[in-house]
Amino acid sequence: MKISRGFASDNNAGVHPEILKAIAEVNQGHVIAYGDDPYTAQAIDKFKEHFGNDIDVYFVFNGTAANVLGITALTRSFNSIICSDLAHLHVDECGAPEKYTGCKLLTVPSPDGKLTVGGIQGHLHGFDFEHHAQPKVVSITQATEMGTVYRPEEIREIADLVHSYNMYLHMDGARLSNAAVSLSCGFRDITVDCGVDVLSFGGTKNGMMFGEAIVFFNKNLTGNFKYIRKQGMQLGSKMRFISAQFNALLSNDLWRRNAKHSNDMAKYLEEKVKHIPKIKITQPVEANAVFAILPAESIPELQKQFFFYVWDETTSEVRWMTSFDTTKEDIDRFAQTLENILGERS
After folding, report:
1. For residues 293 and 280, what is the distance between their CA atoms, to the nearest angstrom?
2. CA–CA dist 261, 162 (Å, integer)
3. Count of Cβ atoms closer than 10 Å to residue 150 Cβ
4. With contact defined as beta carbons under 8 Å apart, do 137 and 170 qualify?
5. Residues 55 and 182 in one domain
6. What does pTM read for this prediction?
7. CB 291 within 8 A of CB 319
8. pLDDT tens, 129-164?
9. Helices and strands in the chain: count of H runs, count of E runs
10. What is the DSSP letter of 201?
11. Which of 223, 249, 275 represents a domain boundary (last residue)?
């Protein structure tokens, strides 16, 4: 079997060796199931080291569950959820938010993936009017679907607006590690310290095999959450194998090392291709994504050798993602292939 690395998604990467080692190390003997094991307790303590003690943490299998169940804890079916028109909630979760929460999604056009106070305000009306879905949650993504990053002051401004309407701020942090590295900060600085109420914390895109975490910064919201997780089919019996991965990821700066490498590789990829006349970089490269427009006829030929996704077929915009295991050699080969296809020489 040919082993290769493409640029489609950090989900396509393998598992970091330190994560695999952590899984193997807990694969000994019996422990109590469903999270009542010492490894899960240790993992929760790791989260508290990064986010503070006054939190509740629940592990689930995947990001869709983290988003949907986290928001379920905040809403009733007559509520609405405000998000970017590019948000994973809206575009890539197959209607799961609507199905499981019963809520209406209200989207805001966001060319760079980022919500603004002005964009959100357009949906802040109809309160206490029974004919109107009641706005209750604003959901932002960090780093965004366009690879851009919210600054702490931008998050705080949104949080202040949301809370002034007695609403909640949810953050889809599937790539929170990449955002923190981009901003040279810790997790707290762009979550709880900025007013985020509930966080979906991603591990899979940063070197884990599987597993995400739902972190509640307002513990008053979690009274019934263990039942919500169970009904949502996300209570893992052998939870130690999720917890062990988080123990490794949140120790010895592994989360930071992995994210820094993938971010650095995205910048390297940008440098290698931006000089090519027929290539147009469309978004600031702030995390581990490069968005570019290239001639439509070149895309199928390039995809034969390197797997990646077309983001917008109408404009021939593509998305190239880097991962913790992307190498400069991968990028050099990719850039050279691209130049050959386009008939360019550096």
Report:
1. 5
2. 34
3. 24
4. yes
5. yes
6. 0.96
7. yes
8. 999 999 999 999 999 999 999 999 999 999 999 999
9. 13, 11
10. E
11. 249
